[in-house]
Design brief:
alpha/beta; Rossmann fold; 4-stranded antiparallel β-sheet; globular
């Protein structure tokens, strides 16, 4: 039996008197695409922020790659192999495309007694990475804020793939994207799946994730209300589950 890549057990979170997460448990397997869906305010993003160290759970356990863990920052989660991609929020807009790909993990070269950034090596590697993803940007020296939403997604995914992330979390990745941009995101997810990378696709829009998901986890009012493979869930059935909670 295939071992679980991620397991979150009985996660609880309060914000003052607001009971945001009420004992949510779920797992992700290697190479699996999980659609984490529910209405706005259901608790989806809070759950992921706990996983990636943005928030602290009040109760519960997290296991990643078979080991119990607790991340205190997104940097720690990234170092462990978890990359989170937000629409227009995962990049440093005033830095170049290349610097964004290697942010925090820059290539260095030695000059006498100094260690300097190896800009040429990072630039060459960036071009190769983006080309593999079908992205031909005018220049990887341009600031990331001048890239389109779809291009920004590609830059963030290139970073995840280069540093061999085991799990990529995409939080509402298709927000504000046109049809071509949405197709590109789906293509990226399929490419990651072929490489054995797992994806958690968070959205309130069922039709964004349905074509690519292997399994759906439905969250409502801080609770997991359904967890099943796609073959057991038609779009109409998922809609019915969400709207009857």
């Amino acid at each position: 039996m295939v071992s679980k890549l991620l397991e979150m057990k009985e996660i609880h979170k309060w914000f003052g008197k607001v009971y945001a997460l009420k004992g949510v448990s779920f797992s992700v397997y290697p190479g699996e695409v999980v659609g984490l869906i529910g209405d706005n305010g259901a608790g989806k993003s809070t759950l992921i922020k706990i996983l990636t160290g943005v928030l602290k759970a009040d109760k519960g356990e997290i296991f990643f790659q078979g080991k119990k863990c607790k991340f205190f920052s997104p940097k720690e989660a990234r170092a462990a192999g978890i990359e989170t991609i937000y629409q227009e929020q995962s990049l440093a807009g005033d830095l170049s495309v290349t610097r964004n790909i290697f942010l925090g993990k820059e290539f260095l070269k030695k000059r006498m007694f100094l260690k300097l950034l190896d800009h040429e090596k990072m630039k060459k590697t960036s071009i190769e990475l983006l080309s593999k993803l079908g992205l031909n940007l005018p220049s990887v020296d341009n600031e990331a804020r001048f890239c389109s939403g779809g291009e920004q997604q590609g830059i963030a995914i290139a970073r995840a793939m280069y540093f061999k992330a085991s799990l990529v979390i995409m939080d509402e990745p298709m927000r504000n994207l046109g049809i071509k941009g949405k197709i590109k995101v789906i293509d990226f997810i399929k490419m990651m799946k072929k490489k054995g990378v797992s994806t958690i696709f968070i959205t309130h829009n069922l039709y964004d994730v349905y074509p690519v998901a292997d399994r759906f986890i439905i969250i409502s009012q801080g609770k997991k209300v359904h967890d099943a493979p796609k073959k057991e869930l038609s779009p109409s059935k998922i809609t019915e589950i969400i709207t009857t909670q």
